[in-house]
């Protein structure tokens, strides 16, 4: 019987595995996809390195910026500096592999198989992959926005609670500032995020119905802003974007299971920031499992970062109103503050 199985080796699953292994619990991590690039901005907020010391000396190509440029709905450019720490831009190919390697080097077991079935037994789980079945005592669902673990236990995130993103990885913009251009009509924004070796340039909207318009809007932005950039990959992706606080009140842990990261819906619905919540969720889940009480994760995440996600969920409709966005950018500049916490 496997004591702990983690489905998904993104930042949530791998960091959870790392923290468990550090505590001499050696989980099995199921993921068939590595090495893989994930469609993502790759932006890690200032201050994250205080929470996760391994970020202070990240030995993979990445960018660091002490400022960010925001382009407001009326086209005003506002440059924001940060009081503490830098913004980092990372490639998810390299970042996710790095966190997974940390876990494996600490003693976690990587099973390079896709989980295709899940059965709840009396006090344990039967986890089925394409090759075989595993008996598991405690199960962690870290398998992303379309989590099959979540679907089997509490039901999937609804279409309403997802947003959509479209974009490219490009070469030639590696010296740009991190740039955010707001799209109030689409409740979203475009981004340029240098990641060291290349740059993520994309657009995200809280509303899936805008998907077909996003590509046109992004392409016309690229044609006017950076026609010299060379596209190396194109992608479309879903992202958790919880619109009703009730979603966050659904339990995401029980006596022998926990959902973390995107599988839990833990992405800021205004900024789209999820990497730090994935790492935080992974760390807290490892703590709850080590205590022998996975269910306590329900209170732990609310206490640590839940208030912030709930507040963003309540404010998301207001923030994207055009005059408020103008004010928001000026406010951030005056505060010398970070919009991604
Ligand atoms: C376009 C886009 C841009 C974004 N930009 C940013 C940003 O700039 N900054 C930020 O902080 N956040 C950003 N996010 C959010 C961020 O990417 C996620 O919140 C973060 O990746 C969540 O990590 P995770 O480990 O929960 O899930 P994921 O990173 O999605 O990892 C899930 C893993 O589970 C595996 N898996 C899935 N199903 C199975 C299965 N059945 N069996 C085995 N393995 C399985 C997958 O292969 C994958 O490796 C962005 C998201 C998108 C879509």
Summing up helix and strand content along with how strands pair, one would put the structural category as alpha/beta
Biggest sheet record: 8 strands, mixed
Our Rg estimate from Cα atoms comes to 20 Å
Share of helix among residues? 25-40%
Order of helices and strands: EHEEHEEEEHEEEEHEEEEHEHEEHHH
Bound molecules: flavin-adenine dinucleotide
Q: If you average the pLDDT, what whole number results? A: 93
CATH class: Alpha Beta
For the record, the CATH architecture stands as: 3-Layer(bba) Sandwich
Distance between the termini: 39 Å
Low-confidence stretches: none
CATH superfamily: FAD/NAD(P)-binding domain
**Portion in strands:** 25-35%
Compute the number of structural domains.
1
Number of helices: 9
What is the tally of beta strands? 18
CATH topology: the name is FAD/NAD(P)-binding domain
So what's the overall shape? globular
In short:
With about 350 residues, the chain is of the alpha/beta class. The chain has a single domain, classed as 3-Layer(bba) Sandwich (FAD/NAD(P)-binding domain), CATH 3.50.50.60.
Question: In words, what does this structure look like?
Answer:
There is one protein chain. With 341 residues, the chain is of the alpha/beta class. The protein has a single domain, classed as FAD/NAD(P)-binding domain, CATH 3.50.50.60. Helix content is 32%, strand content 29%. The chain has helices at residues 11-22, 48-51, 92-106, 148-153, 211-225, 245-249, 275-290, 297-319, 322-335, and strands at 2-7, 28-30, 43-44, 62-65, 67-71, 77-81, 87-90, 109-111, 115-120, 125-129, 133-141, 162-171, 178-183, 188-194, 199-205, 230-240, 253-254, 257-259. The chain is globular and about 60 Å long. Bound molecules: flavin-adenine dinucleotide. The site of flavin-adenine dinucleotide has 37 residues, from helix 1, strand 16 and helix 7.
